[in-house]
Design goal:
Blueprint lengths: L2 E5 L6 E6 L2 H5 L3 H4 L4 E7 L2 H15 L3 E7 L8 H13 L7 E6 L1 H13 L5 E6 L2 H5 L6 E6 L2 E8 L4 E5 L8 H18 L1 H10 L6 H21 L14 H10 L7 H18 L5 H14 L15 H10 L8 E6 L5 E7 L1 H11 L1
Parallel strand pairs: 2-9, 3-4, 3-5, 5-6, 6-9
Antiparallel strand pairs: 1-2, 7-8, 10-11
This protein binds adenosine-5'-diphosphate and zinc ion.
The site of zinc ion (ZN) has 5 residues, from helix 11.
């Protein structure tokens, strides 16, 4: 069965359809989104041979002809060069503002295509068909699109909401297990921020939560949670920052580790565990809650500390220096999302760097 989660953003509200067969379930909606009866589909060279045929067949069944644009896989595509190539390709196809472009892929394809859609002819529509668990949970809500620049990740971008998101779990059957686990980190993150009963449910399912109906339910819960927060704070002036739980640590790990040594979700999992441990160290969170978080991450097969990441050679001072550089900080201060317990995250915008270095030195 397919679950539909509404994302309420006034006149830019849209649905996220989730589950095995979400693509077929979405078919009746497609003619309304593609009035010229053609869909430009942006995907990458890995995904095209695996999933493009099915997407093309479902669209054909809805009377829509597909016109694919196949990009190179990998983070380098999320660049000014990739943007130029894609905008060019869209304009060569005479895309009109009444049309929408489909992003069929992971975070790289989704972020790039969303940004290209936002700027081409000052904004064409876009439909997301995320094919990684990470993208299904994470980039499907919030409308963040963009590319990396020389200065940093996602430093050029726009908020551009999709018309529809189709998170079909059939796509992730071809995803390596490590990628699936990494994507799960963004699911558990939602529960730990603000939904203790969701955590209990995920914890009771254990490793089974990575497959089948429990996974679809977990994606839907995480998407609904995120939609709720984003609806309150679309442009991230306040509560939306809670969604960065684990991420300030994660971005530092990712910046310090060799290229491709660790996955984003793995860094987030370790970062979440550290946020709980640091909260305990400050006397603000029961140790038993941090224990439960670590045990759950271990059960899933995710890192649950800095020492259990695939890269291990960390330096506390360098990590904290990276955390100072995080673009989410205000005026040179470190903002961290901490927790008073499971489901009780809060924002501390004034973290003492020296104190944090001392804590990290004991936990690396
Ligand atoms: P994310 O940021 O969502 O984790 P990326 O866009 O970086 O994902 O994609 C990671 C890699 O996985 C890319 O090489 C991409 O081509 C590949 N990929 C994406 N979706 C699938 C899938 N469903 N099956 C197999 N490989 C996939
Ligand atoms: Zn993330």
């Amino acid at each position: 069965s397919v679950l539909t989660v509404p994302v309420g953003l006034g006149d830019r509200s849209y649905d996220v359809m989730i589950g095995d067969g979400a693509l077929e379930a979405a078919a009746p909606r497609l003619p309304g989104i593609f009035p010229r009866q053609r869909a430009i589909i942006v995907t990458d060279r890995h995904i095209a041979p695996l999933h493009l045929e099915r997407v093309t067949a479902v669209l054909a069944g809805a009377g829509i002809a597909c016109d694919p644009i196949v990009m190179e896989p990998g983070e380098a595509t999320k660049s000014f060069a990739g943007l130029e190539q894609l905008v060019d390709a869209l304009l060569e196809r005479n895309i009109e503002r009444s049309e929408a472009v489909i992003a069929l892929g992971g975070g790289v394809i989704g972020d790039l295509t969303g940004f290209a859609a936002a700027v081409t002819k000052r904004g064409v529509g876009f439909v997301q068909i995320p094919t990684t668990l990470l993208a299904q949970v994470d980039s499907s809500v919030g409308g963040k699109t963009g590319i990396n620049t020389r200065q940093g990740k996602n430093f050029a971008g726009a908020f551009h909401q999709p018309r529809l998101v189709i998170a079909d779990t059939a796509f992730i059957t071809t995803l390596p297990e490590r990628e699936r686990r990494a994507g799960y980190a963004e699911i558990i993150k939602a529960a730990l921020i603000g939904d203790a009963t969701m955590f209990d449910r995920l914890d009771a399912a254990g490793a089974n939560v990575l497959h089948g109906a429990p996974l679809a339910r977990a994606i839907a819960d995480a998407v609904a949670f995120k939609a709720h927060i984003v609806a309150q704070d679309e442009l991230e002036h306040g509560r939306r920052a809670l969604l960065n739980l684990g991420h300030t640590f994660a971005h530092a790990f990712e910046a310090e580790a060799p290229r491709d040594a660790i996955r984003h979700g793995e860094a987030v999992a370790a970062g979440i565990a550290l946020a709980f441990r640091y909260s305990v160290a400050r006397g603000e969170c029961p140790a038993s809650d941090a224990d439960r978080v670590e045990t759950h991450l271990r059960t899933i097969g995710l890192p649950w500390s800095a020492a259990t990441l695939a890269h291990k050679d960390w330096d506390a001072g360098r990590l904290v220096a990276r955390m100072r550089d995080d673009k989410k900080n205000q005026a040179g201060e470190i903002t961290l999302i901490l927790a008073r317990g499971i489901g009780k995250a809060w924002i501390d915008p004034r973290i003492d760097a020296a104190h944090l270095v001392a804590f990290l030195e004991t936990s690396l």
